[in-house]
């Protein structure tokens, strides 16, 4: 056997091993495409992205500004999962989407819901007949009404009914009027109403500080923790297990506490 043949054989062997190693690395690298609202969800996902890359997971973040399309696209398998839903909202979503595939994995944070006004500095200044804007989706409208009831502005048939509607109001002594609008639009119409109940993610995007700018706010014992959600067919994947662990890590807890300073609260 010639020296030239032996050298050529070694070169081909090394090349083959290199290709095999590259193939194994490619197979080990998993990709997750997760839907999220811009703040704080996408920001928190961006924070864990480098950590996941070291664990072999490529995290792709698709940002939405509404609450409907992310859930729809997960059900259609155009996305692997989402991070923006609360359990009450997911329950309501499932009622209207018969083939819902979404499965909650872990709680990550709570965004305390709050009431804002650009016209009044104190809740006691709110006049009779005031117009109050609340979200129009079932989960958040009930949440808004419960929070208003806790402020003594109205009474509900059942304070524990998270799906409460205006029909469940049994006492409205101030003759309050309600505008039900898409949650994302509420910061933009704040000057057109007397009071608006705004989700914290949309408040932060609008440069409102929930702790300083609101007239009242939920406490940390809210049942509305934001969830990491997968599909039935991928909920046990190694990639999702790594993402769930990352979102419930001490590093993420510290990031939430330092970045949002109480406007967003860790739920783990």
Structure description:
This protein is α/β, with parallel strands linked by helices and 268 residues long. It has two domains: 9-111 and 223-266, 3-Layer(aba) Sandwich (D-Maltodextrin-Binding Protein, domain 2), CATH 3.40.190; 114-217, Periplasmic binding protein-like II (D-Maltodextrin-Binding Protein, domain 2), CATH 3.40.190.10. The protein is built from nine helices and 13 strands. It has helices spanning 3-28, 38-54, 69-75, 87-96, 138-150, 200-205, 210-213, 238-247, 250-260; strands at residues 30-36, 57-63, 81-86, 102-110, 114-116, 131-135, 155-156, 169-171, 177-181, 195-198, 216-217, 225-231, 265-266. The strands form three sheets. The protein has a six-stranded mixed sheet with strand order 2-1-3-12-4-13, with helices on both faces. The chain is globular, with a radius of gyration of 24 Å. The N and C termini lie far apart (67 Å). Residues 1-28 form the signal peptide. It comes from Undibacterium baiyunense. InterPro entries: Lipoprotein_NlpA.
List keywords for this structure.
268 residues, alpha/beta, Lipoprotein, membrane, palmitate, globular, 5-stranded mixed beta sheet, D-Maltodextrin-Binding Protein, domain 2, lipoprotein, 23% strand, 2 domains, single chain, 6-stranded mixed beta sheet, 9 helices
């Amino acid at each position: 056997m010639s020296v030239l043949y032996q050298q050529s054989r070694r070169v081909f062997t090394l090349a083959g091993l290199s290709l095999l190693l590259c193939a194994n690395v490619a197979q080990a690298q998993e990709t997750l495409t997760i839907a999220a609202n811009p703040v704080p969800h996408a920001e928190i996902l961006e924070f864990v992205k480098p950590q996941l890359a070291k664990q072999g997971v490529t995290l792709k973040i698709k940002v939405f500004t509404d609450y409907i399309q992310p859930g729809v696209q997960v059900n259609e398998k155009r996305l692997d999962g989402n991070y923006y839903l609360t359990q009450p909202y997911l329950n309501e979503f499932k009622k209207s989407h018969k083939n819902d595939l979404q499965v909650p994995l872990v709680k990550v944070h709570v965004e305390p819901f709050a009431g804002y006004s650009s016209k009044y500095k104190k809740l006691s200044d709110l006049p009779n007949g005031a117009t109050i804007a609340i979200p129009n989706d079932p989960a958040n409208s009930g949440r808004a009404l419960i929070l208003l009831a806790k402020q003594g502005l109205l009474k509900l048939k059942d304070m524990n009914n998270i799906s409460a509607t205006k029909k469940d109001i049994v006492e409205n002594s101030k003759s309050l009027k309600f505008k039900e609008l898409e949650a994302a639009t509420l910061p933009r119409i704040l000057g057109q109403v007397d009071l608006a109940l705004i989700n914290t993610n949309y408040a932060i995007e609008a440069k409102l500080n929930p702790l300083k700018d609101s007239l009242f706010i939920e406490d940390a014992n809210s049942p509305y923790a934001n969830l990491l959600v997968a599909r039935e067919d991928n909920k046990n994947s190694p990639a999702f297990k790594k993402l769930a662990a990352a979102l419930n890590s001490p590093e993420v807890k510290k990031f939430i506490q330092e970045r949002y300073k109480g406007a967003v609260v860790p739920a783990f």
